[in-house]
Amino acid sequence: MTFDKPAGSWSQKHNLLWDNILDLKISSPEVTRQEVAFCLMHQQKYGLPLDSRRTYTKSDWTLWTAMLADNPADFAALIAPIWQFANDTPPACPSPTGTKPPMPSSRASRPAP
User: Fold this and answer.
1) CB 64 within 8 A of CB 17
2) Which residues form the Glutaminase A central domain (predicted)?
3) Nearest-angstrom CA–CA distance, 53 and 34
4) What separation in angstroms does the CA of 99 have from each of 90, 92, 95?
5) 36-40, 63-67, 72-76, 95-99: lowest mean pLDDT where?
6) Exposure letters 7-33 (e unless 16+ CB within 10 A, then b)
7) Are 85 and 66 in contact (CB under 8 A)?
8) First-to-last CA distance in the chain?
9) Rounded Cα gap, residues 47 and 51, in angstroms
10) Is 95 in contact with 101 (CB distance < 8 Å)?
11) How far is residue 16's CA from residue 34's CA, in Å, rounded to a whole number?
12) Can you give the three-state secondary structure of the chain, one letter per residue?
């Protein structure tokens, strides 16, 4: 929900994670499941938008939202766009050779989430 555009607006409920971690019981498990399902429907190429106003995203908020998933498939689906962004974009601090550093061999054979 965004207060400047109430009709049909929405926002990530990433802070529900802390309700779960701290066992505050402010939200029900059903509300959390509904939130995860809603978020899966609103994913963009590189992540879940913060809210309905723009497509801006924050990987930390998306990761917190993914932690709400009660099954591995939903978790993987929520974090897949973050992985995609990391692999599609150039590094923030280019290496002296201009290439991405090689992936450690222990991770090189792992499939994308």
Assistant:
1) yes
2) 2-95
3) 21
4) 9, 12, 6
5) 95-99
6) eeeeebbbebbebeeeeeeeeeeeebe
7) no
8) 29
9) 12
10) yes
11) 12
12) CCCCCCCCCCECCCCHHHHHHCCCCCCCHHHHHHHHHHHHHCCECCECECECCCCCECHHHHHHHHCCCCCHHHHHHHHHHHHHHHHHCCCCCCCCCCCCCCCCHHHHCCCCC
Q: Which two tokens stand for residue 97?
A: 């050779």
Q: Which residues are bridge partners to 57 per DSSP?
A: 49
Q: Residue ranges per domain, the chain?
A: 16-91
Tokens representing 65 are 């939202």
Q: Among all chains, which residue has been given the structure tokens 């801006």?
A: 56
Q: Encoding tokens for residue 49?
A: 């938008």
pTM here? 0.70
Q: For 81-100, what is each residue's pLDDT tens digit? A: 988 988 888 777 666 666 66
Amino acid at 100: K
